User: Which sequence fits this backbone?
């Protein structure tokens, strides 16, 4: 089972087309294994980017050095997945 | 039975497939289950048919879960299917629609991907077909349709999340729907449900020119998102795919529109800004509840504007 411990999802808002292009270039770097949950589409629309833990620092540095604003939407993907699994198991045990 | 199913929880493929049988058993005069094909890993592809009888009726097609990790959509699909049977005979709009038209509803368009999200990788989006010559698995089934196939917003790289596949309709999950809709011949609307961006979109995605019915589709979308917002205040944007988000070749609604289905829409369900695809199950019923009046608006418009 694939684990996502420490992975974060960043909500990134590009200011202009140039920043959108930079995000696309970032997404094409296969070694980073980034996953756009929501693709960079146009200025002002948020893009959501799942970043594996080992690449977090590099990606955040890239965003900051290019003045691309972002916030952390999900601090730890695995924590949310564990919570989701717990909720499902609990629901299955509930008598209806 | 349908009265003991927990609509406020996420469920596995087997649980949902069992529930389809229960729904049919509980409402045999209204709902039947059609087997329209099989997935790459040979899982059955089921479509619910809501019909009050008559032959050669015009129809509305609904689908959820083409992207497997968008769990809120499959859950909304289950709730909505149940809502349709609950409201028939009660709600005048639902009753009028089903007295004249059939509704087809494929709740799990991508069962291989959905099963994979439960067993191995919660964040899997694509199908599970093997790509010759590549270690990467799967095709994005919403870039695989024969409408601007291979165009912008899709990838030729099998390792990409938006890999379009080797050729249009290469995925049996897509081809089965194409064959079904073409074979039916009188599908008047297709509404394909995704998550999460809070949008209601219509053709085109593969080109920027307005669709010939742009104005009408825009008016329908405007009313639908307004009625959706009236439930909990959730604000949706609306417009053509290309204008509102980005160019995307090979999508289902563009294929439908290019094949004569005028009322082609795609929803992106709610985004709380905190969870993405991992929307807590407590959000299922609110999401489905607010989506319902918007769906109904589109379906009523289709009923009242025959073509």
Assistant:
């Amino acid at each position: 089972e694939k684990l996502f411990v420490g992975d974060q999802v960043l909500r990134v808002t590009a200011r202009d087309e140039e920043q959108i292009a930079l995000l696309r270039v970032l997404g094409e770097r296969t070694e980073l294994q980034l996953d756009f949950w929501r693709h960079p589409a146009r200025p002002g629309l948020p893009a959501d980017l799942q970043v594996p833990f080992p690449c977090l620092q590099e990606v955040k540095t890239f965003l900051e050095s290019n003045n691309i604003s972002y916030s952390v939407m999900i601090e730890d993907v695995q924590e949310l997945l564990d919570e989701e699994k717990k909720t499902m198991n609990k629901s299955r045990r509930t008598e209806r | 039975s349908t009265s003991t199913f927990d609509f406020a929880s996420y469920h596995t493929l087997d649980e949902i497939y069992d529930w389809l049988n229960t729904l049919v058993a509980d409402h045999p005069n209204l709902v039947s289950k059609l087997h329209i094909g099989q997935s790459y890993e040979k899982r059955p592809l089921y479509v619910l048919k809501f019909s009050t009888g008559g032959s050669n009726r015009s129809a509305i097609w609904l689908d959820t879960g083409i992207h497997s990790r968008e769990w809120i959509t499959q859950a909304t699909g289950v709730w909505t299917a149940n809502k349709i049977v609950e409201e028939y005979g009660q709600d005048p709009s639902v009753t009028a629609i089903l007295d004249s038209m059939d509704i087809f509803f494929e709740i799990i368009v991508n069962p291989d991907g959905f099963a994979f999200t439960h067993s191995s990788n919660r964040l899997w989006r694509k199908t599970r077909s093997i790509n010759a010559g590549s270690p990467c698995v799967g095709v994005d089934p919403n870039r695989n349709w024969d409408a601007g196939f291979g165009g912008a917003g899709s990838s030729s790289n099998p390792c990409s999340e938006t890999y379009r596949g080797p050729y249009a309709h290469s995925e049996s999950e897509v081809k089965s729907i194409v064959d079904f809709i073409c074979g039916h011949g009188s599908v008047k609307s297709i509404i394909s449900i995704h998550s999460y961006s809070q949008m209601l979109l219509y053709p085109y995605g593969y080109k920027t020119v307005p669709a010939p019915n742009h104005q009408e589709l825009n008016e329908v979308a405007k009313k639908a998102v307004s009625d959706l917002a009236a439930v909990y205040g959730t604000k949706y944007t609306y417009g053509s795919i290309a204008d509102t988000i980005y160019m995307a070749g090979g999508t289902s609604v563009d294929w439908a529109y290019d094949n004569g289905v005028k009322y082609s829409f795609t929803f992106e369900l709610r985004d709380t800004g905190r969870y993405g695809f991992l929307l807590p199950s407590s959000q299922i019923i609110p999401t489905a509840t607010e989506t319902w009046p918007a769906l109904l608006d589109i379906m009523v418009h289709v009923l009242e504007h025959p073509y």
